[in-house]
Amino acid sequence: MGENPTLGKTFLGQTREITVQNQPLVISISEAASLLGLTKEQLYELTRERSRVRSAHPIPFLRLGKRIAFRRESLEQWISELEKVVRQ
Hints:
Layout: E1 3-4, E2 8-11, E3 14-16, E4 27-28, H1 29-36, H2 40-47, H3 49-54, E5 62-64, E6 67-70, H4 72-87
Antiparallel strand pairs: 1-2, 2-3, 4-6, 5-6
């Protein structure tokens, strides 16, 4: 069982490509908090209207009914934007 970094994992002579399509389109607030290294309470605060108005770079999120969800890709872009601001 070897691994080819360009193709994915090799198992019993067959190569399977690892893609992000196996991941859910959105993640929960618990998963997002874990990804960002925050508590759920801290993340809830970042999604509140007053926090978003004050912030130059509001956190991207979706409301699905009463549920708050996040796209992993959007969170990664948001982090990159914050890093650019810090470097300036």
